[in-house]
């Protein structure tokens, strides 16, 4: 991450989705960024958003996305638009030299994402998707436990869920179940995190094959509302990841990583139970006690405090990279586009397996 | 469960596997039973077992299984034999009017098990398998949470693991990886619990289809060392269960049951971390807090104390049923054979799907 910039990075928000409220707050919490402009399809919606969220009067309010992109003082845009609009607006933003912080899923498929990334690269702007949990210090601490210390031994099993029980109105009207808006449904909206977690745990190595499980549920327009998949490394398997995402089950965000020597577990990996402090558990060297009447060890809890919420840390990281590009003419950091690309590739593979009746899809 | 018998139920143990040590202790801990005889293939092995485990001098030591079954004072046998020997010895025991407490997996397939159950039924003896966790008061408490209170809403997702990281010697020599001994490998030995947990959570309703996942690992003799499966209810799915069992991953015994309204979770469901007290967590009505910066609720922990270890409670339950049959000429309780039969059917289906290249197997 770059140094703290002398002049803060000015963000424009394109689209006033609910999630924008959280990120608007994060932009102001982060030490190196400021909310500079808000654009919606209508000036009324933008004004409403501004007044609902106590946005400072100095923030520019625009009645179109284009106006945000045309404002020469906007350094970067945060884009919580329906997925079907990502390609157009992210490319437009890049062409106008705006750095792009975009909500997940990044695009309808990796072909679209490649176009966005190409536009960002050729225009020298930073790209990052909105996977906030990757920026939490707990995630950093877990990675140490996983990789640096080798406490878990060889990782051979990863399990991740992302579920939320939505309302009947959501199932009827939300853009996340509309084929022309967020065609990837639950897989794109919340499955993104599960797939990201598998890749994260495998240090962004792509799997050998991906197989959707037969429990997929779709609405009448073919949008996925619930699904599960097996993400397999090696054949025969050296590591297997299993994901489950659903709009029908009560809120869950489980992540378990198991190796030959131990396991790591948490149940709130995407959004911690509380902002200021988060935890995970790990168990190392677990065996059954003599006579198998209990365990020799119990899970150990690791607590990680966080001064800033993870979304502010994400904004801080992003703004730091933008600052580096601006002040020292450095290149955009390829790490974040690479993470997005691989996650989208994995998502495409699950979708393809679903579409082809749960046939395995090879990489 | 029956009343405490005036004369305790006399157990004979057939086979001196490691697990027999735990159950020998349980037989003596349970208030209504006594260890009466031990039989091994050689008198030396039986004597060694007796001395290793501080067995009282009054306990009969036999150098063959037949001698245990021929002893008229033996009421019931506990049978921790390799699975391939279950059919022969369980049928022999039943014919000699011995009640049968048998280790899991109950048989090599449900056809074999049906023969055992038929022998038990026609001879009026009780049958029960060694799924100890079903007898823990925590399990009873979880069932209340699940079914009586409807706290979780409609259960639509169940997840269960049973893994243990075995030694190279185990992979070479243990009977649980030998095709002529425990041909069902990890699926039979530890996957049994995962499948039992799915059935338990669905009140012993059989699923619609079962599909093995492609991550199966076998040894050179075709014995399963690791596998995963999807257990689906309804088509399209109303509930899906995912299981994972493995001889390669560090000890895990995860069970998560998620419904539309909440979830229940524990990580030691097969053998609690400690004998005297066990716990589970449940989360009800979880939503993300305003702005999605945390959860509105955290998991609640339920602690359940247990005066006797679960294996002693199993023996107590079994002995109570035997006592009822003996004193009031009542019929064996069909509940336990039914649980075993359904678990074995599910196991057979997973095995079949594995053998047929992960094709779905319908019930």
Automatic annotation (TrEMBL), chains A, B:
Residue ranges occupied by any Gfo/Idh/MocA-like oxidoreductase N-terminal domain in the UniProt entry: 9-128
A single MF term (Gene Ontology): nucleotide binding
Pfam (any one): GFO_IDH_MocA
Location of the GFO/IDH/MocA-like oxidoreductase domain: 146-264
Protein family (similarity comment): Belongs to the Gfo/Idh/MocA family.
Protein name as catalogued: Uncharacterized oxidoreductase At4g09670-like
Organism: Herrania umbratica
